[in-house]
């Protein structure tokens, strides 16, 4: 455990609303989904906050950067992908498969948007013309979870199948990497500057890495019950990750060295996180806060 870091916590909702996913757009705004609050919160670069409703019955799960000032959000309950700007909803795209429960989301360099469908064992894609296509995730009953982009390719976790999927260059063919640890439960995933995919194994207490040649490495955490959840790459080649079970923020360097930091508020339930262009780490705390760790 490292020395205490300097965190700032911003109250953005009540505990019931449950801040969950985080994204940072190029204009410096920080976006947080309220998965049980039917809304997203936007923190303006001047430090002000605004809550944007996604409508009654919505369940905004995870965000991804769309443009300089807007995000894409998966709405698991209403089975759609929503585009949100500072002024509100800019558009919504319905998922063709009924009850798909879209969850993870990532935007590619080509402008396409990829998302996971937790209940249909599928990966969805919205092209630049707004057309939706769905592809098999490569395994039945796999529970596709989070997804990350690398150029025009995507990586995604299959939580119930202990596997990581890869789709190259917009091709629908899926390559699977099966994890050696049974019951690993992979969830969060990101792509580092060297094109390696890093992911969390929430049920095994490990961080995994697949390099561009397909070589897999697993890094056990000191507390195997710490429940690593989300993970985000930083410009130095390492990754930050949240530890939901142990109330910590972790960092893993490119060489696998791990450092952990306790969060200041007990039982704050850290979930999603994102790294800003200035290196600031933003963490969604399900207890109703957005935490900020400045470099």
Overall tally of structural domains? 1
Please report which band the strand proportion falls in: under 5%, 5-15%, 15-25%, 25-35%, 35-45% or over 45%: over 45%
The CATH class, by name, is: Mainly Beta
The secondary-structure element order is: EEEEEEEEEEEEEEEEEEEEEEEEEEEE
Strand order of the largest sheet: 1-28-27-26
Largest sheet: 4 strands, antiparallel
Class from secondary-structure proportions? mainly beta
CATH homolog superfamily: YVTN repeat-like/Quinoprotein amine dehydrogenase
Mean pLDDT: 95
The helix fraction, in percent, is under 10%
Shape: globular
CATH-level-2 architecture = 7 Propeller
List low-pLDDT spans.
none
Count the beta strands: 28
Q: Please state the oligomeric state of the protein chains shown.
A: single chain
Give the key terms.
about 300 residues; mainly beta; Methylamine Dehydrogenase, Chain H; four-stranded antiparallel β-sheet; about 55% strand; globular
Explain this structure.
The chain is mainly β and about 300 residues long. It has a single domain, classed as YVTN repeat-like/Quinoprotein amine dehydrogenase (Methylamine Dehydrogenase, Chain H, 7 Propeller). About 0% of the residues lie in helices and about 55% in strands. It is built from no helices and 28 strands. The protein has a four-stranded antiparallel beta sheet, with no helix packed on it. The protein has a four-stranded antiparallel beta sheet with strand order 2-3-4-5, with no helix packed on it. A four-stranded antiparallel beta sheet has the order 6-7-8-9, with no helix packed on it. Strand 16 and strand 17 form a beta hairpin. The chain is globular and about 45 Å long. The two termini are about 20 Å apart. The model has no long low-confidence stretch (mean pLDDT about 95).
């Amino acid at each position: 455990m490292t020395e205490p870091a300097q965190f700032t916590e911003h109250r953005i909702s009540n505990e019931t609303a449950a801040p969950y996913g985080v994204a940072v757009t190029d204009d410096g705004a920080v976006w947080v989904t309220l998965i049980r609050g039917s809304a997203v919160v936007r923190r303006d670069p001047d430090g002000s906050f605004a809550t944007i409703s996604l409508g009654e019955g919505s369940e905004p799960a995870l965000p991804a950067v769309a443009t300089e000032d807007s995000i894409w959000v998966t709405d698991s309950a209403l089975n759609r992908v929503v585009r949100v700007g500072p002024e509100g909803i800019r558009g919504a795209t319905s998922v063709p498969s009924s009850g798909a429960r879209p969850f993870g989301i990532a935007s590619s360099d080509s402008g396409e948007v990829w998302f996971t469908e937790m209940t249909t064992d599928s990966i969805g894609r919205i092209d630049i013309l707004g057309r939706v296509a769905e592809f098999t995730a490569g395994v039945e009953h796999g529970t596709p979870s989070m997804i990350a982009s690398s150029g025009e390719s995507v990586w995604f976790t299959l939580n119930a199948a202990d596997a990581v999927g890869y789709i190259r260059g917009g091709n629908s063919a899926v390559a699977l990497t099966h994890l050696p640890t049974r019951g690993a439960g992979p969830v969060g995933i990101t792509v580092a500057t060297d094109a390696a995919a890093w992911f969390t194994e929430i049920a095994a207490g490990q961080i995994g890495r697949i390099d561009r040649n397909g070589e897999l490495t697993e890094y056990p955490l000191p507390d195997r019950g710490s429940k690593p959840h989300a993970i985000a790459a930083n410009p130095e080649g390492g990754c930050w990750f949240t530890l939901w079970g142990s109330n910590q923020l972790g960092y893993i360097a490119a060489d696998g060295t791990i450092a952990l930091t306790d969060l200041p508020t007990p039982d704050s339930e850290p979930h999603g996180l994102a790294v800003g262009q200035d290196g600031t780490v933003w963490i969604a705390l399900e207890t109703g806060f957005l935490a900020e760790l400045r470099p």
